[in-house]
Each structure stands twice: as C-alpha cells, then as structure tokens.
C-alpha cells in the first residue's frame, strides 16, 4: 500500500497539508466537504503537491515536517516539484 503526504490549495488561497492511502478518494472527500474540518468551508481544493512513502509513519513524519514550514517554503516546495514534472 502506498502512503501519500499531500498539499492542497484551498479555494481561499490557503494551503492544507495531510496524508492518505488513497489520494483520489481523499481529494474527492475534501471537495465534498467530508474531508478535514479546515477544508470544509474552503472548497474547492486543488492538489498541488504530493510525495509517496512505503509506510504510514514515514508519511506522517513528512506531513509534520511540511506543516512546520512557512507558507513561502511550502510554495517553493510546490514550485520545485512543478519544475521536475515539466
């Protein structure tokens, strides 16, 4: 099973970081207002970044580390991934 740590951009421009084992299902849940309390009133949300891990513990550690970053550091992380994909 793959574990994901992800960043969403909310409808109000804020960023939300979380983890899941099913990225598509979790994104759908967020947009159907069944996701996290934080995103419930900030839809629509868009997936802007993710990483994969073998274990839940690794994904949770990375989620915590990303949550400690400043907004500008998170945006830089997102930009770096975009450059790699394009």
Structure overview:
This protein is of the alpha+beta class and 86 residues long. The protein has one domain (3-85): GIY-YIG endonuclease, CATH 3.40.1440.10. Helices cover 47% and strands 24% of the residues. It has helices at 23-31, 37-40, 56-67, 71-85; strands at 3-9, 15-20, 46-53. Strands 2-1-3 form a three-stranded antiparallel β-sheet, with helices on both faces. A hairpin with a 5-residue loop joins strand 1 (3-9) and strand 2. The longest helix has 15 residues, at 71-85. The protein is globular, with a radius of gyration of 12 Å. It starts with a strand and ends with a helix. The mean pLDDT is 94.
């Amino acid at each position: 099973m793959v574990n994901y740590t992800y960043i969403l951009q909310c409808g109000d421009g804020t960023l939300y970081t979380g983890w899941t084992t099913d990225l598509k299902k979790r994104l759908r849940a967020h947009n159907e207002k069944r996701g996290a309390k934080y995103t419930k009133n900030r839809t629509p949300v868009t997936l802007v970044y993710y990483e994969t891990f073998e274990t839940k513990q690794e994904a949770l550690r990375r989620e915590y580390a990303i949550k400690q970053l400043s907004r500008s550091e998170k945006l830089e992380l997102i930009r770096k991934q975009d450059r790699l994909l394009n």
